[in-house]
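Appendix B: complex inputs.
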Amino acid sequence: MKVSDWKINVIQMDVAIGDPDKNYRQVEQNIKLAMQGHDAPDVIVLPEMWNAGYALNRIQQLADEQGIRTKELLHRLSKHYRVNIVGGSVAVKQEGQVQNVTYVYNRQGERVSEYAKIHLFKLMDEHLYLTEGDMLHRFELDGIPCGSIICYDLRFPELSRTLALSGAEVLFVPAQWPNPRLYHWKTLLAARAIENQMAVVACNRTGSSIGDNGEETTFFGHSMILDPWGEVIASAGEEALILKGTLKLESIPEVRSRIPVFKDRKPHIYQLGVQE
Ligand SMILES: NC(=O)CCC(=O)C(=O)O
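Resulting structure:
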């Protein structure tokens, strides 16, 4: 099935630090809420590290062992509601190592993607507690080629370009991107959309957390849905809500033919490096 209008719901929620039970409950409630009424979405998107938050000192105990709890929840809800779910990301423990992992489920309840964050964010000590991923993944939802990255990965244009070159037309970006870097968040999201001529769907958490070091970090929300021209289709403020927007998928080939960026690339020159 290939669709033309894709209804997206972005769950911009607070995350209770170090309290997975509360977070699994509120994710389930939010997904149920999104599916109520006549305007049900095609895709639901969650934020980064929503199961445990950045309780990194305790992450070995709090992380989802083999991702079992998260996979069960996302499988059950995507199948029951026949909705695609880009499951934000969760802390997952496998063979003693914890990674920041995105699971994606299609409407049939099948897991179609698993991606571990590649660039760990040193300002939030991720590199001290987590193990980085080493592989990008392209997947399809409703016949639409998609890719996902996580938060700090957004600063590395190589990832979204690699995904776009592999055919991805929609990029999902779950995040816990804090103050005071709102300008970077908005600008980088628009840049990734414009340079890759792809739609970008970004889900940032809201609220605040007191970390293990006793410091409070506040998150500004501002989840966004952008079209492949970089225009904002929908944008949230700082409060918890479900951001709704519709992607017109036919605009992707239209934008790509208007300015043929991909045809105009010169990879043989990029590979030569820089002459000094
Ligand atoms: N959770 C993250 O990766 C945060 C990234 C961030 O805040 C940034 O400025 O980059």
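Residues 48, 121, 124, 151-152, 155, 176-178, 181, 184 surround LYUYDEPV (CB under 6 Å).
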